[in-house]
Design brief:
By secondary structure, this protein is α/β, with parallel strands linked by helices. The chain has eight helices and ten strands. It has a single domain, classed as Aldolase class I (TIM Barrel, Alpha-Beta Barrel).
């Protein structure tokens, strides 16, 4: 891990303007806004996503989490909510990436890889050339009701590290992160950024004490390097 900095932080499942402001105040580099999903926490209406996006300051990225796989539907979503980054939580046809690039110039694409085993490494290698970053999470898209994130589960960080070493794109690490394990996760994987949702929430609400503890652990990590 680069001793000159600790990973950037993306706070996901932002549900209100107030949560967005709190996350930014604690130094978040990106905010995740969850649109319609087959399962998982944090889903809010597109109208509220657009409202939150409108108050996010320059320099903080706005991520739309979308479970859609059809390019036209994703393009329409982005034009309604005006985020600057699209997080694709499900696998999409390879042609979709090019369609998004053409229709949405300047909008970053982040593909989620649900780390389940050795096969995830090849999946990441295959997808990486088409996107701006990869986000490694703990979902299971093969279930009848797909899990596409927000499970609160940790996956095998050794595989995440191998993905990080195998691809030349920034890696976001997600899945069960909290103040209790974020230091070890950062040391093992050395990601570009950390993505946290349930680990900084109480009863579904962004918890200032948990968020503060999470950021403090990252700060301590930098001091010890």
């Amino acid at each position: 891990m680069d001793p000159t900095r600790y990973p950037r932080v993306k706070i996901c499942c932002i549900s209100s303007v107030e949560e967005a402001q709190m996350a930014v105040a604690f130094g978040a580099s990106a905010l995740g806004l969850v649109s319609d999903m087959p399962s998982g926490p944090g889903v809010i209406p597109e109208e509220r996503i657009a409202e939150i996006v409108s108050i996010i300051p320059p320099g903080v990225s706005s991520f739309l989490l979308t479970s859609k796989t059809d390019a036209a539907l994703i393009i329409d979503q982005q034009r309604r909510v005006r985020v600057n980054t699209i997080q694709l939580v499900d696998a999409v046809p390879k042609a979709t990436y090019n369609e998004l690039r053409i229709a949405l110039p300047g909008i970053l694409l982040v593909q989620v890889i649900h780390v389940s085993g050795e096969n995830s490494i090849q999946e990441a290698r295959s997808v990486a050339p088409h996107v701006d970053a990869l986000l490694l999470d703990s979902g299971n898209p093969k279930l009848p009701r797909k899990e596409l994130g927000g499970t609160g589960r940790i996956h095998d960080w050794s595989i995440s590290r191998r993905i990080r070493d195998a691809v030349a794109k920034p890696i976001f690490l997600a899945g069960g992160l909290s103040a209790q394990n974020v230091g070890e996760a950062s040391r093992q994987v050395a990601p570009f950024a950390l993505d946290v949702c349930s680990g900084v929430r109480t009863n579904g609400k962004l918890d200032e004490e948990k968020l503060s503890a999470f950021i403090e652990q990252l700060s301590n990590l930098q001091k010890t390097n």
